[in-house]
Design a protein that fits this description.
alpha/beta; Uracil-DNA Glycosylase, subunit E; six-stranded mixed sheet; 8 strands; globular; binds iron/sulfur cluster; binds uracil
Length: 264
């Protein structure tokens, strides 16, 4: 692996909030030997202890073997990324899926929405955000734009998730799953080169910004993902709960900011 590729890979893990990287099953050898050996290693094998302190006890120890697919080629396209994903079994989420949910919308869009992962309806239809939360998202996009006089429909934006396969019982994707599948998300955004990204909920925010801050702290302000302006707002599933009506108002405010920034 060239130093440039190595740096890209390390930055990729840093983006995911992974602080320490170790070689897989490294025997106790001298530091210089590890460095020399690491240079010859296949670029696809690393072991990443992911924020151990945050994980529930039953998930420890967590030496996760992460098989990182190849780096994004120049002139990457959504078709190429979809081809590379193939009939993916790179993480354990493949076991429970009916079908992979890649993404939907306009590949030439200026605005990308990123959710967490497919739910039951999405897993059945192969399209992101088609269930109840999806209908709310559609309504938020189209309702806000109509009200603001910005002619944007759901079909004009691009919508995808951090993980492409439905987690069992709709649980939150685990760090290793986010690390592996997040790589495809990064390629999707890089291929589209939108004017802005809107991260829906804490999983998307964590995948794209790293760090530990939750949505309440991150929302409503501009951040960046690799120089692309990024807004964090509440996940529509959260807004469906009846006691979160203040959040709903805030989410509409966030969306208004995004739409004006992108389309004015
Ligand atoms: Fe592959 Fe992503 Fe599905 Fe895991 S969630 S099996 S990495 S497509
Ligand atoms: N929730 C998500 O995060 N993504 C979907 O596609 C549907 C529901």
């Amino acid at each position: 692996m060239s130093p440039h590729e190595l740096r890209q890979r390390l930055e990729y893990f840093r983006d995911l909030g992974v602080k320490d990287l170790y070689r897989r099953s490294a025997p106790p050898v001298s530091r210089s030997a590890v460095v020399a050996d690491a240079a010859e290693q296949s670029p696809i094998a690393v072991t990443a202890p992911v924020a151990v302190a945050e994980l529930p006890a039953e998930m420890k120890p967590i030496n996760i073997d992460i098989a990182i697919p190849g780096m994004a080629p120049e002139d990457d396209t959504l078709e190429r990324i979809r081809e590379d994903i193939g009939d993916c079994t790179r993480c354990k989420l493949h076991k429970g899926r009916n079908q992979l949910v890649f993404g939907v919308g306009n590949p030439a869009t200026k605005l990308v929405f990123v959710g967490e992962g497919p739910g039951a309806d999405e897993d059945e239809q192969g399209i992101p955000f088609v269930g109840r939360a999806g209908q709310l998202l559609t309504q938020m996009i189209e309702g806000t734009s109509a009200k603001e006089g910005i002619p944007v429909k759901r079909a004009d934006v691009y919508i995808c998730n951090v993980v492409k396969c439905r987690p069992p019982e709709n649980r939150t994707p685990e760090p290793d799953e986010m690390a592996i599948c997040g790589q495809f998300l990064f390629r999707q955004i890089s291929a589209i080169k939108p004017k802005a990204v809107c991260a829906l909920g804490s999983t998307a925010a964590k995948a794209l910004l790293g760090g530990k801050d939750g949505v309440t702290k991150l929302r409503g302000k501009w951040h960046t993902w690799r120089d692309i302006p990024l807004m964090v707002t509440y996940h529509p599933s959260y807004l469906l709960r009846p006691y979160n009506q203040d959040a709903k108002r805030e989410a509409w405010e966030d969306l208004k900011k995004v739409l004006h920034f992108v389309y004015d």
